[in-house]
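Predict the 3D structure for this chain.
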Amino acid sequence: MSSMLTHAIRNLPTSSAWAARVFARSLSCSSQLQAAAVQPKSKKTLAKSGVKNIVVVEGVRIPFLQSGTSYADLMPHDLARAALHVPRDVVDYIVYGTVIQEVKTSNVAREAALGAGFSDKTPAHTVTMACISSNQAMTTGVGMIAAGQCDVVVAGGVELMSDVPIRHSRKMRKTMLTLNRAKTLGQKLSLISKIRPDYFTPELPAVAEFSTSETMGHSADRLAAAFAVSRLEQDEYALRSHTLAKKAQDGGLLLDVVPFKVPGRDTVTKDNGIRPSSMEQMGKLKPAFVKPYGTVTAANSSFLTDGASAILLMSEEKALAMGYKPKAYLRDFVYVSQDPKDQLLLGPTYATPKVLEKAGLTMADIDVFEFHEAFAGQILANLKAMDSDWFAQNYMGRKSKVGAPPLEKFNNWGGSLSLGHPFGATGCRLVITAAHRLKKEGGQYGLVAACAAGGQGHAMIVELYPQ
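Done. Predicted structure below.
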């Protein structure tokens, strides 16, 4: 693994004007990618008789930032509306994904749409499915278009980890609600007299499983140990992610990133978590979860991130009628669930063979892989599980392994470890990155996969639109 990694390292205008800008941006992005693109090999299309072709017309995201930085004073819907770079007058429906909801704007999709100037007649709803929330938003949009309910859907995701809800303790909440119903001064004083110091201890949110109370980092450490993924391998992979992300950022490949003028601050133009280090510096960090012998550290884990993303989905017929050149087709997809204790982060391992079989493809047919990197140990454990006949036979009920993606096709423009991971927004980034990489690298099929809390996962096939 060491040698493999070393090699791999070698304010809003009118809708009509906005639509014109999106169209122009689409053409600009296409020309930039085309400049050095490799012509794709000719393969069969995955179109199915009687099934609508759903296309990605455009996909954008505001820069993903480390929590507590430039977005710290905003609310989630502020980020979400900033990502709605789409022609407002043609959108039939909006779906957004998020994980940690702001109680004032629980349906963040609706608040973002209104704040971005969409018609109040445009319906919007919000979904949540942990780290695959925007994946769920996208496939919800696909389903609505395929069913003939809509022609144009915006799917996206948002997360603001700089300001998460912190609750009073259950005892204090109960007392306060009862106090609100008290009618006499005596009743109120009686309730107040029962308050004890421990009532004031707040309930802090944690990235932990409700069913097991285990933090995701602790689970990642156990998973890495179960698949014998060493600290060295994890640090090498994390360094690879940051190095490739820096190269992609400097090379102008991250075309989905749009500038965001933060109210009262400067305009943010790029992700701020990309920081290539050195193996020596990374090796100095202590374990973050399983102490003192764990292998998961701050350097080989994704960081708490603020950000938002959005993708414009249409039926192919509608997109062509409007004069758009789609970027990609969204083809088959699957969702999976498994034991949230011992297999919490193995979603890609279970979802990948299923989506390949559904699409009639093999691993060799895939030109681009975009997998969510929650932890380096999680990614490497999945790759080992996918390449294990024993695991396939004993845990997945399969006759043989599906095989691991080759690293030369895998997350070549960085991943969540380096670009950041706003829980509800990562899925859209994966899909639009896959589309851009297919065009740039001359491929036809991309495979997007991600794990999520609750032991769930998602995988989808992305097919390049004919050039």
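The mean pLDDT is 92.
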